[in-house]
Design brief:
two-stranded antiparallel sheet; 3-stranded parallel beta sheet
Length: about 220
């Protein structure tokens, strides 16, 4: 008899314990299973984390593209006659390129601050005033030309003065690499030979391993 009482007491204890640890009260509707699952795990894994990672990877490229767009729409000091607001032929050609861009010309153009004025150490403020005046006149010169070039198209342009670094560089290295690339791998009776790019852009002699018998490909200084 005592054994039956102990079993009944244990069953009551288990039932009461399950009731005490339950997440739902008797006066509220039971939460659907999917809602309970969403409260324990992230149902959007891994999509939300992939999105954040993708944005973090692409954001530097977006900044780079924005800076490139600004540089592409910039008129530099060498687009004007030295010390004046007169656009030279290179400046006119640059503006023609900008107003013909598709799908639409940029509404804002950029002007490099004047870098062709003499500096007087005895009177540095003179250069500051002269530079501000020249920047203003050059901006007006740009506006006059683009307005005339786009007459009848109902377009307005704004010119902002900036002071960027010159992005130009010598193109000999990339040109040499482009010329030498086709000859880097050549096949022959002896198989495929691998030749380093040289300054002359030459390739390897078919059937040899080092080019023309030297370690550098064509016998010139290798890169």
């Amino acid at each position: 008899m005592s054994r039956k009482l102990k079993a009944a007491a244990a069953a009551c204890a288990v039932a009461s314990g399950l009731g005490s640890v339950g997440c739902f009260s008797t006066d509220a509707p039971r939460t659907p299973l999917d809602n309970r699952w969403a409260s324990l795990v992230d149902p959007c894994y891994p999509e939300r984390y992939n999105y954040v990672a993708r944005a973090e990877v692409l954001s530097p490229f977006a900044i780079h593209a924005a800076n490139g767009a600004i540089i592409d729409t910039t008129l530099w000091t060498y687009h004007f006659d030295a010390g004046t607001d007169k656009l030279n032929p290179a400046g006119l050609e640059r503006l023609d390129y900008l107003v013909r861009k598709r799908p639409a010309p940029p509404a804002r153009l950029y002007l490099q601050t004047a870098r062709d004025l003499a500096y007087d150490s005895a009177n540095p403020d003179k250069m500051v005033a002269a530079r501000d005046d020249l920047n203003l006149r050059r901006a007006e010169s740009i506006k006059r030309y683009v307005t005339a070039a786009t007459a009848g198209r109902g377009m307005t342009f704004d010119v902002a003065v900036i002071d960027p670094a010159d992005m130009s560089f010598r193109a000999e290295g990339p040109a040499n690499a482009a010329r030498g690339w086709p000859g880097r791998f050549q096949s022959g009776i002896g198989g495929v030979s691998n030749n380093n790019l040289s300054t002359t852009g030459g390739g390897a002699t078919p059937g040899t391993t080092g080019g023309t018998g030297t370690a550098g490909g064509t016998g010139t200084t290798s890169r």
